[in-house]
Every structure is written in C-alpha cells, then in structure tokens.
Amino acid sequence: MTLVDNRNTSEPYVNLAIEEFLIRHGDCSHQDFLLLYINQPCVVLGKNQSIYKEVNFEFLRNKQLQLCRRISGGGTVYQDKGNLSFSFISQFSESKINNYRLFNQPVVDALRKIGVDAVMDERNNIICKGKKISGNAQFTNRKNIISHGTLLFDADLNLLRNCLKENDFKVESKAVSSVRSSVMNMKDATDKISHTEGLKEYLKRDLKADSILQFTEEEWNAIVKSAADKFKSFEWIYGRSPLTTITKPDIEIEVEEGIIKDIRHKTQDARQLIGTKYEFNEIKKALENSKACDLLKSIF
Questions:
Q1: Last residue of a domain, one of 212, 237, 262
Q2: Taking the chain, what is the end-to-end CA distance rounded to the nearest angstrom?
Q3: For the chain, how many structural domains are there in total?
C-alpha cells in the first residue's frame, strides 16, 4: 500500500481534487494508493445530489461551512477536524464495484484492535453499537476505482445534525437522497487513541502504508488549479443539482443547475429573478435596487 502525501492540507477542495487526480492519472498497475486526510469544517455532497434538498437553508444562507461536492455518488456528509477521511485508489476491476467489504474490512479490523466494536451493515456503512461511524461511496472511470469513506472520531455532532437537518418547508427533487442515520463518535468507544491525528497515524501503520507517493510541483499545481477551477466553482457545487422545486408559504421556486428557472408568487415582482443563481448573496444583490427587496426572506 502506498500512502499519498497530501502535504498535510486540510482544504477540502484540494483533497477532493487529489482524489480525482489519482483516479485519472495514478498508476495503479503495480500498487494501490491510500489517502488519509482531515478537512476543515465542511459539508460534502454526493455527485448527483441536490444541495437544496440535502443542506439546511440556515447554513446555506449564513455560509457557516464550506460546501463541497465529490466525484462519487452516495449521500451527504459533514466533516471537521474530528473526522478522518480515507480513500483507497486501485486499478479497476468489475469485481471491485460495490464490493465495499474488500476495501473496508481492513479498516474494520484495525478499529476492532483498538476496542471499537466496528461492523459493516447492509448499506455498506461501518457501525458501532448500532450507530453509524462511517459512510462510504465509490467512483470509477474504468481505469482506476476509488472507494472512500469517513470516520467520525471526535466530530461536532450537534453541528452535523443542524446543518443536515431537514428544512421546515417542502423541497422536492428526483436527485439521490441521503439516508439519515444515528451517528456516534469513536472516541466514546476506545481509550487507546485520544485524537483524530492519532487515528490517522495508527491507520497508516496498521494498513501497512510502507511507501509514499509525493507529487511533483507540476502535479501539485495542477491539483490546486483543479480545486479552484472545478471543485470550488458554483457550477460544480450548486450547478450539478438536478431540478428541484422549493415550496414555501406563498411562493414556489423551480431551480435547475443552480439557476432559478421559474418562480410563482402572488406578485409579478418575483419573476425578475428568473435566470438568477439561487444563492443567498446572488438573490440579495439582484433585489438590492428593487421594490421587491422584501421578497428575500420569502425566497431564501
């Protein structure tokens, strides 16, 4: 197993770009790669999810967290310094598709050695005492395949629940929806490791990551550029959201690819927003010099 040196970055967009770079350019013909990283507080959506359905609007409005989207499917996850993310990148094989046990069993075994009663459930999550400690997803380009997941060690579970809680108004979309689960932190199940960095170092050893991949400056610059140009862009984070209908008191809004496609309100003033990005600051800016500025609270 070859450990990927991510230069100890906690920038979620950079770590997401590293994963895509390895999928597209990694030589997995003679080695498998392991990427371990700890992100700054963020919410990460699956590739095919609607951001408006998955994330609580209070958080969307106040921008309290970085919002991200990964290249794999699956559900939305919250990450912070109390969460360790792991990614296995290997050469593609049909037998690896949805074979989460192949990738996750070594992680489960490692956790059990430190006293965490970890098992895999029928949804391919890793659970402990009936509660979820790890969600997982996969992506392949038929050259390489990535199977990656989260490990809740000492995350802010109140923040997790608040930013992912359902809104108190109707949000409809045919996008893939997250399956909400009870969660727990592993720190409550082991006294052998005291912090997330300790878990990271332990997994390096137990998973036998005995060689290191270091990116050249040219490769690193390409990764950082991809993080800025793609993974941090409105088009990727918001724009990949499928058609979503938001129904609030006295107003109905249709949003597709992050853009207001239609809006129904008792006044005609709201229709000026058709074609506007459905994002709080964009709508606020569009309404600043309008008689309909009081619409802002109704719309977002």
A1: 237
A2: 47
A3: 2
Instruction: Note the pTM of the prediction, 2 decimals.
Output: 0.95
Task: Name the residue among 142, 149, 31, 133 with its Cα closest to residue 100.
Answer: 149
Digitized pLDDT (tens) for each residue of the chain, 300 residues in all: 999 999 999 999 999 999 999 999 999 999 999 999 999 999 999 999 999 999 998 887 876 789 999 999 999 999 999 999 999 999 999 999 999 999 999 999 999 999 999 999 998 999 999 999 999 999 999 999 999 999 999 999 999 999 999 998 999 999 989 988 899 999 999 999 999 999 999 999 999 999 999 999 999 999 999 999 999 999 999 999 999 999 998 899 999 999 999 999 887 778 889 999 999 889 988 888 776 667 887 888
Question: Which CATH number is 156's domain given?
Answer: 3.30.930.10
Please indicate, yes or no, whether residues 17 and 144 belong to a single structural domain of this protein.
yes
- Cβ-Cβ contacts under 8 Å for 91 (sequence gap 6 or more): 28, 29, 32, 143, 144, 145
Same domain for 232 and 252?
no
45-66 residues labelled b (16+ CB within 10 A) or e (exposed): bbeebbbbbbbbbebbeeeebb
Domain span at residue 265?
244-299
Same domain, 192 and 218: yes
Both 98 and 162 in one domain: the answer is: yes
Tell me, yes or no, whether 54 and 110 share the same domain: yes
Which has the closest alpha carbon to 299: 259, 255, 253, 261?
Answer: 253
